[in-house]
Design goal:
Largest sheet: 3 strands, antiparallel
Radius of gyration: 21 Å
Oligomer: single chain
Order of helices and strands: EEHHHHHEHEEHHEEHHHH
Strand content: 5-15%
Number of helices: 12
């Protein structure tokens, strides 16, 4: 991780970028908030430590062997290892619940106010991975090498892509595709969509964020070559997309008064999202050449199919949540 020495202090640009991004997003939340006075301050007070703890704990649980090999006290050395955004989200949900208890408001209304600013924070945090040397994709030289047959468009001279923003150099000086910028752009699109959407009930924006984030990460995580968060050859954040989508579905279901009718209305959307998850997993196996009848597919074609499935998953989930919201009774606390 890149550092800057200033007098006797060591400054981590990545950590500094995260802190500044979080402060800016809390200020944005305060500017747009329709919650009771002081609510955002309470939320920030709870969200910072709980988000850090949740993100660190999530990373610890899926990288337990890595932590134990270096000593359990590595958990408290915050500059080593990393964090999981799903763990951060769990911490923010708890922070919203505590804020609701302190200010006598519903946790979903707090989460709604936090949804768009958090999407912006994710975008800025992904962009800040430039300083941490993570969020990298394949090596540019290997990707375009005609002998390796990874892409349908090989090049003898890929130097055009060996520059920012297409790629960045890793710690060994090799050029790798800058996947973190693609993730930052995806989160920025989610941020814009959440600013523009109109909802009737509190909690809808938070569900929209979760369904879009989980859907797109099924594809984006596949592009990364970071090896820490893997179970076998499958990225952990890809697998966690499935429970995230199920959480969205059941939240939609249980906030309806007529759950049987709501289930009949929503289950085709759930089936569609699960089908797209299946396509993503199929392509993940195809990338590893573990499916004999798909060995002809090069990596770029596998990722193209995966990207299309992820976008379809997000569109289906977006429409499902908005359909559920449209049948809900209007909530006076919701910001139009």
């Amino acid at each position: 991780m890149k550092t800057i020495s200033l007098f006797s202090f060591t400054i981590y640009p990545y950590g500094l970028a995260l802190a500044v991004s979080a402060l800016f997003c809390f200020l944005l939340m305060q500017h747009r908030s329709r919650l009771k006075a002081g609510s955002v301050s309470w939320f920030a007070l709870f969200a910072v430590p709980l988000g850090l703890l949740g993100g660190r704990l999530g990373y610890f649980l899926v990288s337990l062997t890595w932590f134990l090999d270096r000593g359990a006290d590595t958990f408290f050395r915050l500059s080593e290892g990393g964090y999981m955004f799903y763990g951060v989200m769990a911490g923010l949900v708890l922070a919203a619940w505590l804020t609701g208890r302190m200010t006598r408001q519903s946790a979903p209304s707090v989460l709604d106010d936090a949804a768009a600013p958090f999407a912006l924070f994710v975008s800025l945090a992904r962009a800040a991975e430039f300083f941490s040397g993570t969020g990298l994709g394949d090596y540019v030289d290997e990707w375009f090498d005609p002998l390796l047959e990874r892409t349908s468009f090989p090049m003898e001279d890929p130097s055009f892509f060996q520059q920012f923003p297409f790629a960045v150099q890793d710690r060994h000086g090799f050029w790798c595709f800058s996947v973190f910028l693609l993730e930052a752009l995806a989160a920025l699109v989610i941020f814009i969509l959440l600013l523009r959407v109109s909802t009737r009930r509190s909690g809808t924006r938070a569900l929209l964020f979760l369904v879009l984030y989980a859907s797109l990460q099924t594809f984006l995580e596949s592009l990364r070559i970071d090896l820490e968060l893997r179970w076998g050859f499958v990225k952990v954040n890809q697998l966690l997309a499935l429970p995230a989508l199920l959480i969205v579905f059941f939240c939609c279901l249980f906030r309806s008064k007529d759950r049987k009718a709501e289930f009949r209305s929503l289950w085709p959307s759930l089936a569609g999202m699960l089908a797209m998850c299946g396509v993503v997993m199929l392509m993940e196996f195809a990338l590893e050449k573990k499916i004999p009848f798909l060995t002809w597919m090069r990596m770029d074609l596998c990722w193209a199919v995966m990207a299309l499935a992820a976008v379809c998953m997000g569109v289906i989930g977006w429409k499902m949540v908005l359909k559920n919201d449209a049948r809900s009774a209007p909530d006076a606390a919701v910001v139009k």
